[in-house]
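Hi X.,

You mentioned you wanted examples for the new student's onboarding notes, showing what a folding record looks like when two proteins sit in one file. Here is a clean example. The first protein comes first, with its sequence line followed by its structure tokens.
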Amino acid sequence: MAKNRANEDVFNELHNLITREFLARIKSGEATTQDLKAACDWLAKNDITGVAVEGSALSGLADIMPTIDFDEVQRAIRR
């Protein structure tokens, strides 16, 4: 006997609720590090990506990230 499964509308509602909860926590400033990690994972699992357009928040984050040179890392490891 087949179990009753949630339909697409129910899954869409759950998806919407989870997304809105992440937004609310982040916008309110109450998001913990775990919340932020979970929100990043949620975005990745839903194939959501961003483009670092000049002047955007993502661009600002990218600008402060250190540049890592693979060859330099390899040389440092071998020392």
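Then the second protein repeats the pattern, sequence line and then tokens:
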Amino acid sequence: MPRNTAVEVGQRIATIRHARRMTQAELARAAYISLAMLKSVERGARRPSDTTLEAIAAALGVDPSRLTTDAARHDSRVHVAIPAISASIAAYDIPMDPPEQEFPELLEAVDAAVGWRLGAQYTLIAQQIPSLIDAALRALHHSDGAQRRQAARLVVAAARAADAAAFKYGYTDLSARLIEVMRWAVRQADDPLLDASTAYVRTETFFAARAHAAGLRALECAIDASPPPAGTEAAAVRGALHMRAAVIAGRAGDATAADKHLTEARLLGDRVPEDSYLGTAFGPHSVRIHEVSVAVSLGSDHVGRALSVARKWTPPSSLPAERQSGFWIELARAQLWAGLADDSFESLKVARFIAPQHTREHPWARDTASTLRRLKRADAETLTNFAEWVGAV
């Protein structure tokens, strides 16, 4: 049977629209398409173009691959866009022509890109971010005073969104270059909290190089240099650094340091609301997710800690999709180690439902699916189908 027929795509759109309690008129307005087109698409009478499909997905707040089963198409579009992202930062420190966009319009566009990052919508990021980075850099080079500092923040936000796609899809050299752009722009922003938040992202370079001990030292230096956690934002930024330090300490096999940083993160998490955000979501729920992450990072001997968290709590849907799916992927790994193969597969399926692109590109999801398939060769074909989808076979 052909995959992704127009009827199948239309049914998925209608189903998610109903779940969001949106009328067809509301969805059409949010996606900037005509009501007649949306009705035609939902009936299966018309197959939406890639651009229309992504506009509908963005309006529904889901990844475009949730509306289709052909994930490879979206992945290939990310890979195709990578050279344009690289080109957009090739001369980041050299003034170019003034930006064509008005500043409020640019601010709105970068805010949308931040939303795509939190929602793990890498296809949208890859397609739109090169022009946003270019515009933000032009604004930075052609402004001064308060607007220059704001433009620097936009450069950091746009580069971080681009880094999300680059890092997840294995372009670690490009990721490192984007982080250097962020660190350069932070100096123009004159914002110690943003500087600390950028140190959080820099840890990716240590993860990629498996230089975990060095990454832990870098994060501890960033914690020492960050502003005192007197207010909500300062507490959230320092708490996020402690969360990150706990995970990389786990990867380094330093259980003592991991527990110390996790304790500090819990104390700070109890002082702030869950939606505290300065580039990185932080709050009590985020700390619980990192408890699982730390346990899995420390290895199979610590699996009980991860399972204990999951028995009492699962992440609410209000958290960023990428963070939710990360919880389920890491829990699946712990469940596999504990001999809970069926539970492990269910967790992978939940992760896929929440953030398909994030799950498909996560090496631990691929590794867990591959092991499950080896252990349960006689199982239903759904496991094999999942393993093929995630690239484990």
